[in-house]
Write a structure and sequence with these properties.
single chain; Aspartate Aminotransferase, domain 1; four-stranded mixed beta sheet; 13 helices; binds pyridoxal-5'-phosphate
Amino acid sequence: MPSNHELFERSKAVIPGGVNSSIRAFRSVGGEPYVVESAAGATVTDVEGTTYLDLVQSYGAVILGHAHPAITAAVSAAATGGTSFGAPTPGEMHLAEAIVARVPSCERVRLMNSGTEATSTAVRLARGVTGRDRLVTFAGNFHGATDALLAAGGSGVATLGIPGTAGVPAAAVSETMVVPYNEVPELDDSVAAVIVEPIAANMGVVAPAAGFLSGLRAECDRVGAVLIFDEVITGFRIGHGGAQAKYDITPDLTCFGKVIGGGLPIGAVGGRADVMEHLSPLGPVFHAGTLAGNPLATAAGLAALEHLDDNVYIELMARARHLSSLLRDACASAGFDASFPVVGTLLGITCGVDAPVTNFDQAKTTDEDAYARFFHAMLAEGVAMAPGAYEAIFIGAAHTDDVIADLGERAARAAAVARRGTAQS
Ligand SMILES: *Cc1c(COP(=O)(O)O)cnc(C)c1O
């Protein structure tokens, strides 16, 4: 079997940067990625036969752990009956019913293929429903690769219309206002929608401040704007009802992805019937997709949701707290400066920042070099974390108490190495 390096080099000859999602290239931590051969439960094994305890878990998509038997069986059974038809299926109805039954704000759900497609569809729908163009987003929130949502922000003041990446025309973000997270902006009646991660999980893990989400709800109601919760990470990870249930706020629209596909490509927009029925074919806002409601993805997603009972979430919460305290103790004893915030079942890591992070300006003071050292020290200990200093630490049903304890021991050794500053590159 060729080595990680050989396969990555060969991939680079045909795939830009050798990856199909840029963070996987290890650019922000240095070095080269392990190339995955297979995975099971809490572990991934690379093509060289090295097995890692995995804290990436497909960025949270495989909450039951890799190759969970229920998911594998559901996908195999579905595949036997054909992989895509271009006609309605019972499977998509079952998954939509499962979401509607668990998330009270979602009376209707439209299924699609990614979180990115969900956020772009929700934005189009909100603009179509209100007849307005202006979007309000929060610095440090991430909503996928949607032009209108790839606006730059984070200076601590509201900014309007600055593309956050090459290739996004100024016109695509000219109606996108980026404001600081955890501060309720004053809206006016030009605003079509406010889109927010109700728990921010792409700038470390940042809880919503008291009054933030309820303040957004009230401001949106005051000016007639649509409140969109981007629950692509938090949906079915925080609990059955997502962050909206935890904080008891009812958004107009919710974006889903990740967990609801059981590890297969998926996205969804859910919301009140009167809003959702503006989507085609009932209404004037276009949405379509060749593979939308894909039978493999809906079978996997349904199997995942059916497996996620209250006990799983209670266990996940306890394990997130336990791992947080083990990691905190490991780093503290080694003199390595890192904090491990927990919000419900979500666990984050922030290196070199004193106070709890509440917004993007604070998040950006993260010591990225320190994270890179810890990342590589953990990798050397056989623990795979996300190769970026702002990603969450994803645990799931496969991270049993034994795995958590093992992670704590490996982290103690890794923190000592990271403290000595022996970064690999
Ligand atoms: C992952 C993510 C997305 C994008 O989902 P994809 O399936 O990668 O397109 C959108 N919003 C949030 C909050 C995410 O974490």
